[in-house]
Amino acid sequence: MSGSRIMTCSRCGKDWNISINTRIPQNGYICPHCTSKERFERRSAWMENVIKTLQSLRIGKIFEEYDLQNEIAAIFDKVGIHYEKEYYLGTGSRVDFLTNSGVAVEVKKGKPNRTRLVDQINRYAEYEEVKAIVIVVETSLRIPVTQTTNGKPCAVVGLQKLWGIAL
Ligand SMILES: [Zn+2]
């Protein structure tokens, strides 16, 4: 077939039929599948950093949602995570934080209604600038949300577990 050729992916070792015009990087061809996988893993690393930082929060008393937001802002500043607070995504969608790596952080006080929370997350996930979502909740969710309906990664950080003996 003219116009295409077979290239072996340097990551997965599979043969791919690609256009003759596709530019091959010096360190070898990487198929679309492996490219998107790598992009996803890089994205996860940003998300992990946000999760780790939030897990290091120590709240010694029952908090107000507003106080917790200030604590999160302070700890993000400390570790050098850049963010916008109360980021406006669109009508009816204002997320508590959006990091410059695209992690939306939403804070929920009390025991959130799971259905309503999932709806909210999926609404946020529709926006291009949201790459991943982390929900900070007072009590951990019985069924954790791990992914939005359009496939963006999602994590829940429960604070109650972190209170420990300080309570
Ligand atoms: Zn591959």
Ions, cofactors and other bound molecules: zinc ion
The secondary-structure element order is EEHHEEEHEEH
Q: Give the overall form.
A: elongated
Largest sheet: 5 strands, mixed
Q: Radius of gyration in whole Å, from Cα?
A: 20 Å
Helix vs. strand class: alpha/beta
Task: Going across the biggest sheet, name each strand in turn.
Answer: 3-4-5-6-7
Overall tally of domains: 1
Low-pLDDT ranges:
163-167
Number of strands: 7
Mean pLDDT: 85
Helix content: 25-40%
User: What is the beta-strand fraction?
Assistant: 25-35%
Count of runs of 4 or more consecutive helical residues: 4
Ends distance: 70 Å
Which helices and strands appear, and what pairs or packs with what?
Blueprint lengths: L3 E5 L6 E5 L12 H24 L9 H15 L3 E8 L2 E7 L3 E6 L5 H12 L6 E6 L16 E5 L1 H4 L4
Parallel strand pairs: 5-6, 6-7
Antiparallel strand pairs: 1-2, 3-4, 4-5
